[in-house]
Hints:
Elements: H1 3-25, H2 28-55, H3 67-103, E1 107-111, E2 117-120, H4 122-127, H5 139-142, H6 146-154, E3 161-164, E4 172-180, E5 184-191, H7 193-230, H8 236-267, E6 273-275, H9 277-286, H10 288-291, E7 298-302, E8 308-310, H11 312-328, E9 336-343, E10 346-353, H12 375-378, H13 387-397, E11 401-407, E12 411-419
Parallel strand pairs: 7-9
Antiparallel strand pairs: 1-2, 1-5, 3-4, 4-5, 6-8, 9-10, 10-12, 11-12
Adenosine-5'-diphosphate (ADP) binds next to helix 11 and helix 13.
Amino acid sequence: MNAWSKDITAAVLLLITVLIVGLITHLFLPLLFLAFIGVLIRHIMEIDRFEKWIRSGGSGQYPQTTGIWEAIYYHVYRLKKSERKRKKKLGKMVDQFRMSTEALPDAAVVLGAHDEIKWFNKAAMKVLGLKRGDKGQRVPNLIRHPEFTRYLRSTDYQNPVVMPSPTDGNVTLSVRVVTYGAGLRLLLAQDVTQLKKMESMRKDFVANVSHELRTPLTVLKGYLETLTDMDDGESALLSNSVRQMLGQTDRMKHLVDDLLLLTRLETQKKQSHCVNVPALLTKICNEGAVLKNSADRIELQLETQAGILGVEEDLRSAFTNLLVNALKYSPEDAPVSVRWYQVPEGFRLDVTDRGEGIAETDIPRVTERFYRIDVKRNRKVSGTGLGLAIVKHVLHNHTAKLEITSELGKGSCFSCNFPLKLLC
Ligand code: ADP
């Protein structure tokens, strides 16, 4: 029997009793009224008891009652019990989360909409120098580093900012912000001192080795050139060997030069000047080194005479690499277009060829050092695999971006996008 039917049965029984007694005593209406008042008083008392029980937290066993009230107490009691269970579970989870974030070696700081500190872990005290009382303070007031302030203000948190630790200048931190929820941000700071040290050791090593190789290579090349001049053609084996050695020495020299250029691009920024890009492109397209009987293949379109603020020597390397690649990786009679023009965001150089193209999966990798697609395909085409890495670095130093669109068998377009602010 459910709760309602119990109450309905009781009401029907009460009505029948009132009816019988009322008929016998001729007091039906007063008795009905009395019965109604009785039921009303019972429910008012139950409401009062229920309200007191709820006010006391609704915990523990509920009062003894019957009918619909017993059902109400029972359901509320069950709801409260499952809520308590959920709260306990959540509390445990929060504790575990706190413990894990406290154990994190990286600093974690929760920031509000106005850069105010809402919470931070233990590592943040050590790594960022935050103190217990700093909650509620604005983080740019505590971590005063121009790069960091700019990064926090920029709202573009894709790339972390690398800066010295505010507590120890010898420690290098990589700081990044992750947004979540409504206006909340998580600031993470990681100690990358060792990584930075290893990176600088790698740079020094490459620079030193390249530098040391330069002199012996020049000497070798000199002697091989002398031998070629002296060659009277009597021994085909000797002539062939000397030619091959000279070819390989040239290749090594090219590699060393590219490595030295990459190291320089990474470590020191040259002074920028106003570069006359149309004149530079005209020079590059006409240069003998580039042409190699390709003069009639190059279509130069100068749609703007704009120049940009930059390092001419570096831009020349980047543009030359793009043009040489376009000529190298397309058939000997296929045209290559070089187009300099203005776009709403700035200025753009497109080097387009109708060559072999690049597969979609290779496009993101071609700017990696020493990455050469399908070595078998390229075996006949000489190269170091450093050309596009140089292009990427040069553009990065100019706050410009390289865009590659390509289709296998149809050709490729390498676009250098320079921002409007570089106009000079
Ligand atoms: P490489 O010295 O081998 O030319 P790069 O860094 O200039 O080195 O280029 C990397 C690789 O990207 C090349 O080996 C080649 O496979 C591919 N590549 C570059 N430019 C083009 C192009 N215009 N068309 C097709 N493939 C290209």
